[in-house]
Amino acid sequence: MPNSLPLGFQKYFWDTDLKIINPKKNAVYVVERLLEWGDAKTIHWLENAYGRTYLKKIIIKTRRLSPKSANFYAHFYLINPKRILCLQKGFPQKQRTIWNRWVN
């Protein structure tokens, strides 16, 4: 596992200083952000840094991927979409309900 992120990744972490992100301690945060916003080179880096097995675990358990990204990775890594939490039918509805409570 790397000790730091490549400088080219700053565009994916626009709200954070790369120097303070520890790829070991903040692995879930790093993987989620790069899966959602990264490109093919980023995915290649993730696979080398964390391994496919770890990436699959994050994809299955995270709720921070958009449905579009989650569907892509389900097909890319041959994961049954029914196993991916953020693709579960009730998940988007729960988010809207909570948000609507605060807006109205």
Question: Which terms summarize this structure?
Answer:
mainly alpha, about 0% strand, about 55% helix, single chain, about 100 residues
Number of strands: 0
Give the fraction of residues assigned to helices.
40-55%
The best one-word shape is globular
> Structural class of the helix and strand makeup?
mainly alpha
- The radius of gyration computed from the alpha-carbon positions, rounded to a whole number of angstroms, is 15 Å
- Number of individual domains: 1
* Span between termini: 45 Å
- Please write the string of helix (H) and strand (E) elements: HHHHH
Number of helices: 5
- Kindly estimate the percentage of residues that lie in beta strands according to DSSP: under 5%
- Arithmetic mean of pLDDT: 90
Are there runs of 5+ residues with pLDDT below 50, and where?
none
Sheet of most strands: none
Domain DUF6922: 11-59
Protein name: DUF6922 domain-containing protein
Organism: Candidatus Roizmanbacteria bacterium RIFCSPHIGHO2_12_FULL_41_11
Explain how this protein is built:
The chain has helices at 27-37, 40-50, 52-61, 67-76, 90-103. It has 104 residues and is an all-alpha fold. It has one domain. It starts with 26 loop residues before the first helix and ends with a helix. The relative contact order is 0.10.
Brief account:
54% of the residues lie in helices and 0% in strands. The chain is built from 5 helices and no strands.
